[in-house]
Design brief:
The structure is a single chain. With 413 residues, this protein is α/β, with parallel strands linked by helices. The protein has 2 domains: 158 residues, Lyase, Ornithine Decarboxylase, Chain A, domain 1 (Beta Barrel); 180 residues, TIM Barrel (Alpha-Beta Barrel). Helix content is 28%, strand content 26%. The strands form 3 sheets. Strands 4, 14, 15, 16, 17, 18, 19, 20 and 21 form a 9-stranded mixed β-sheet that branches. It has an 8-stranded parallel beta barrel with strand order 5-6-7-8-9-11-12-13, surrounded by 5 helices. The protein has a 3-stranded antiparallel β-sheet with strand order 1-2-3. Helix 5 crosses helix 6. The longest helix has 19 residues. The chain binds ligand LLP. Ligand LLP binds next to helix 10 and helix 11.
Length: 413
């Protein structure tokens, strides 16, 4: 459920016509709906109210400081993957005791920053990293709270680039080695075993992989308990999918019901790390048609491309394209909706039925709130786009459009 709907043939973000936003702020433009974000976040809180939990928003999905602040005010924690994300989370007012830090390549500087900040837990991805964190904590006179990121050997059945829970991927500690590594961690003086973590992939559209993963993890925590290692936090990761086209992913409430039987009776707090299912359908990318061209096929050439939204190029991802103004007579065409970038892979929609549009028309790329702006770049020296947050009839510019001067800001000529 989101708040981008047609009223009298015109597409709105909550109570504001998108054409108004395009005229006022220019295109391309990321537009977010506050009501949708709040609703999605609350859905998680409600779904898991039967067990003590923290919802740690996956900052990588959308690191805009205003969005992080909004979530912080609703009680969110953060799942971070870098020092930069830690900086953003803290700056947005997310309390360090609600921050978990996952990632295969944490640097010494990042580890120090996280220790100094007093985060809830490092999710360890290798034995070497564990030793390094113990060393750094010792030098700093601190104790690092840790959990192992366990690779539960579960197939998330999603795109291979966003699947993580199998041995062949770089993530986590193979589940069969985890017990041994926990025993080793227990001997280290400067770490405190706090939790266990697993994240099996993203855009997962069934509950089974989550159930299977959790069952494998619980078997491990039972074995750990038997040898005197108690796990306080069970971090279930993120990964719940959203509807881009015709997927029917489970709702957080459905997932929570399915997990309830396994979780009840466990003396643990749980951590959830959703990104996409909170912000994905709460944001759109607004663009403008520059030209149309009939060649071997029909191209709609627009002012937005792979540098603003790389998901179609990188994962062959489907994003619905809607015209900002439509009428009963609106026609469709078959072709590609492309950007201005000098790459054949620069497309938003390829070989699809699209709304027939002409030069100057505005259109929307739906479900672009997650991994949209956060994966954008300056490729082809294109300034990064602006972001606005709509709240009913109100709109706030939450990130200014970059200027040409920004392109040389950190350069010495
Ligand atoms: N926790 C960890 C440890 C993760 O690695 C991720 C995402 C999440 C949580 C959040 O997952 P979500 O709830 O958003 O599925 N760029 C790709 C997605 C990459 C996901 C990376 N990790 C895309 O655009 O589809």
């Amino acid at each position: 459920m989101h708040h981008f709907k047609y009223k009298n043939g015109e597409l709105y973000a909550e109570e504001i016509p998108l054409s108004e936003l395009a005229d006022k702020f220019g295109t391309p433009l990321y537009v977010y709906s506050r009501k949708t974000i709040e609703r999605h976040f609350r859905t998680y809180l409600d779904a898991f109210r039967y067990i003590e939990h923290i919802v740690c928003f996956a900052v990588k999905s959308n690191p805009n400081p205003s969005i992080l602040r909004l979530l912080a005010k609703m009680g969110a924690g953060a799942d971070i993957v870098s020092g930069g994300e830690l900086y953003l989370a803290l700056k947005a007012g997310i309390p360090p005791e609600k921050i978990v830090y996952t990632g295969v390549g944490k640097t010494e500087e990042e580890i120090r920053f996280a220790l100094k900040s007093g985060i809830l837990m490092f999710n360890i991805e290798s034995e070497e990293e564990l030793r390094e964190i113990d060393n750094i904590a010792k030098k700093m006179g601190k104790k690092a709270r840790i959990g192992l990121r366990v690779n539960p050997e579960v197939d998330a059945k999603t795109h291979p680039y966003i699947s993580t829970g199998l041995k062949k991927y770089k993530f986590g500690i193979p589940i069969e080695n985890a017990l041994e590594l926990y025993i080793y961690a227990k001997k280290l003086k400067n770490v405190e075993i706090t939790g266990i973590h697993s994240h099996i992939g993203s855009q997962i559209t069934a509950t089974e992989p989550f159930i299977q993963s959790l069952s494998n993890i619980i078997r491990l925590t039972d074995n750990l308990r038997r040898i005197g290692i108690t796990i306080k936090y069970l971090d279930l990761g993120g990964g719940l999918g959203i509807k881009y086209k015709d997927e029917e992913p489970p709702l957080p409430s459905e997932l929570s019901m399915e997990l309830k039987n396994i979780l009840m009776g466990q003396d643990v707090k749980i951590i959830l790390e959703p990104g996409r299912s909170i912000i994905g359908n709460a944001g759109i990318l607004l663009g403008k048609v520059l030209y149309t061209k009939k060649a071997h096929k029909t191209f709609i050439i627009t002012d937005t491309g792979m540098n603003d939204l790389i998901r179609p190029t990188l994962y062959q991802a489907y994003h619905q394209i809607l015209p900002v103004k439509r009428s009963k007579l609106s026609k469709t065409i078959f072709g590609d909706l492309v950007g201005p970038i000098c790459e054949s892979g620069d497309y938003i929609a390829k070989e699809r039925v699209l709304p027939a549009m002409k030069r100057g028309d505005y259109f929307v790329v739906m479900s672009a709130g997650a991994y949209g702006f956060s994966m954008s770049s300056n490729y082809n020296a294109r300034p990064r786009v602006a972001e606005v947050l709509v709240d009913g009839k109100k709109v706030s510019l939450i990130r200014k459009r970059e200027t040409y001067a920004d392109l040389t800001r950190n350069c010495r000529i």
